[in-house]
Amino acid sequence: MNLLLELLIGLGQHEEALHVLCQHSGVGFSSDTVDREDAEQMGPEQQLKAFSSVSFDQSGRTGQQIPPDIKSKLLVVLINLKATHLTKARQLITLSFNHVS
User: Fold this and answer.
1) Three-state SS at 29
2) Distance CA 80, CA 41 (A)
3) Global pTM value
């Protein structure tokens, strides 16, 4: 998956990279203002604008944490999709940098 993400990011296919992250890394989004049904009716750009937080579902990852390189790729994808408000989310920054020694 890591190589696929590298290729997608390198080719500028950030929406596809985000889809891969959501499907295979447990990345999820939530919104305080829009419910799930309304979000499903929106296009990808409107969805990203409506989301207020990012999370990593760790169910099914017994004893494993999301690798820092996958988290950094998520940051790159969100920045390129102009969803910088999600990169400032405290839990995302904490998730990304708590592995740095």
Assistant:
1) strand
2) 23
3) 0.77
